[in-house]
Amino acid sequence: MARQKEIFIAFFRSGILGFGGGPSSIPLVKKEVVDIYKMMTDEEFADVLAIGNTLPGPIITKMAGYIGYRVGGWIGLINALFATILPTVILMILFLTTLNQFKGFDFVKGMTNGVVPVVAVMLGVLTWDFLKKSKNALGWKIGSILLFASIIGILILQLHPGIIIGSLLAVALLLPVKKEGNE
Amino acid sequence: MIYIQIFLAFFYPGILGYGGGPASIPLIEHEVVDKYGWMTTTEFSEVLALGNALPGPIATKMAGYIGYEVGGIFGAIVALLATVGPSLLAMLILLNILYRFRQSPRVERLSSFVLPAIAVLLAEMTFDFVKTSYDMIGFIASILLIIGAYVALEKLKIHPAYVVMIGLIIGGLFL
């Protein structure tokens, strides 16, 4: 029972303090799980993070679910997920439904207009982040080839994003590994 | 059945979103705005802005709220399960297998190979938002707000929550 309480507090804190999406709360999760509650060692945490990154989907819920399961079984898994997700989802629903009630007012309409450029900047920054990450992870050559292929597939041929991502994953698995010597 | 649609709309972004929650934002937009037409680009931008201003994982906040808008409380639960469930299940099942092959270069490069495609998807979305802004408030107001938001977020490192709030206030007063 004490363990479950720890799981809840660990993931509640890292969920509610993680501004800027899931990845920003990874250091917080590490602090709670490794430093404060000693649920796993540094190395174990690094392994979970590495494997979490090779799988699709939101990283923070994968980490929460898996660590919760390891520390507290199925109840721990559900516990950790609830603690991570629920507080912020409830906040979100409350804020937005309140805002929607006042939609008719000019002030609220103007607010909507004012926020679109802000979101555009946030997305632009995120785009740049992913470009930098591609360069760091793949290098200039492979990075540019894949970028160019994605531009053709997504922007010119208008293929479903799933097809593009699926093909890239297939290439990652099938391509021979000799070249740049990553091992 | 609306719940099946909600499930599918969030199942794909969940299972295709390599690179954590942010990577699935353009995929969610694709489903919610383009495919099912539940929201306009503008409405989606409000949800995204508020999501960015609030703490916590972004993909689940978006899923929970959009699911709630489209299908009530049960819709929210379905959307959350679709977002979180598949990848978590994969994590629990595959962890042992992947753990054994975690040194393999093929497995290591899985997530990095997808990065350029995510960048293109995000760039496309950025362009959509700039265009929406231009259509709604014109060139000069858009450019001023974009430059202002960029300086505030990236140069002055002001917290996104405050930048969104300032954007909302400026919009409310002047636009």
TrEMBL record, chain A:
Keywords from the named record: Cell membrane, Membrane, Transmembrane, Transmembrane helix
Name the major location. Answer: membrane
Cellular localization per UniProt: Cell membrane
Cite a GO CC annotation. plasma membrane
> Which Pfam families does the annotation name?
Chromate_transp
Q: Which domain of life, per UniProt?
A: Bacteria
The membrane-topology field of this record reads: Multi-pass membrane protein
Q: Which InterPro entries match?
A: CHR_Transporter, Chromate_transpt
Its transmembrane ranges are 71-94, 114-131, 138-156
Molecular function (GO) terms for this protein are:
chromate transmembrane transporter activity
- Give the family this protein belongs to, as stated in its UniProt record: Belongs to the chromate ion transporter (CHR) (TC 2.A.51) family.
Name of the protein described by the UniProt record: Chromate transporter
Provide the organism lineage as a comma list. Answer: Bacteria, Bacillati, Bacillota, Bacilli, Bacillales
Automatic annotation (TrEMBL), chain B:
A single GO CC term, please?
plasma membrane
Q: Which superkingdom?
A: Bacteria
Which InterPro entries does the protein's record reference? CHR_Transporter, Chromate_transpt
Q: What is this protein called?
A: Chromate transporter
Q: How does it sit in the membrane?
A: Multi-pass membrane protein
Q: Note the coiled coil stretches, chain numbering.
A: none
Family the UniProt entry places it in:
Belongs to the chromate ion transporter (CHR) (TC 2.A.51) family.
* Residue intervals passing through the bilayer: 73-98, 110-130, 136-153, 158-174
Naturally occurring in which organism (per UniProt): Ureibacillus thermophilus
Q: Which UniProt keywords apply?
A: Cell membrane, Membrane, Transmembrane, Transmembrane helix
